[in-house]
């Protein structure tokens, strides 16, 4: 069975017809040519496919395209319109927060979503005082980014980059 889906992807309105079993990730990569989100595990375990869906972090390999009809989807490429690096992208470069780079787009989207969540006061498992403003210390950042894996082990640089961008 097929269905029509319309999204705003990185600021551009896009429409397509997809099989109702198609994931957001497959529609983005295979049908719309958006190669920023990566297919890592295809099981929602690595975070390489993380995008922002209506401003919230989503694992695109687990989200069905038809369930997200009408959404605004932002990939890591969409965070840097016109080729101007997003502050997170710049911080990842400054702090060597990448090696092979495969997980980097998902890391950057997740970090952008995480910073927005923290600014909104959303607690995490590591938040000590649920009534106090969120303080993005290292433990808090690590907990909030725990769904994004880096096989190269660039975690110290990723942490430093997010710390810089959070300032």
Features:
iron-sulfur; single chain; alpha+beta; Ubiquitin-like (UB roll); DNA polymerase, domain 1; 2Fe-2S iron-sulfur cluster binding domain-containing protein; five-stranded mixed beta sheet; 2 domains; 16% strand; 167 residues; 5 strands
Would you mind describing this structure in some detail?
This is 2Fe-2S iron-sulfur cluster binding domain-containing protein. Residues 3-79 form the 2Fe-2S ferredoxin-type domain. It comes from Actinomadura chibensis. GO terms for molecular function: 2 iron, 2 sulfur cluster binding; metal ion binding; oxidoreductase activity, acting on the aldehyde or oxo group of donors. Pathway: Alkaloid degradation; nicotine degradation. The termini are far apart. The model has no long low-confidence stretch (mean pLDDT 96). The protein is globular, with a radius of gyration of 16 Å. Strand 3 (50-53) and strand 4 (56-59) form a beta hairpin. It folds into two domains: 2-74, Ubiquitin-like (UB roll); 81-166, [2Fe-2S]-binding domain (DNA polymerase, domain 1). It has helices at 24-31, 87-94, 104-119, 138-144, 155-166; strands at residues 2-9, 12-19, 50-53, 56-59, 72-74. Strands 2-1-5-3-4 form a five-stranded mixed sheet, with helices on both faces. With 167 residues, it is α+β, with helices and mostly antiparallel strands. The chain contains five helices and five strands; from the N terminus they run E-E-H-E-E-E-H-H-H-H.
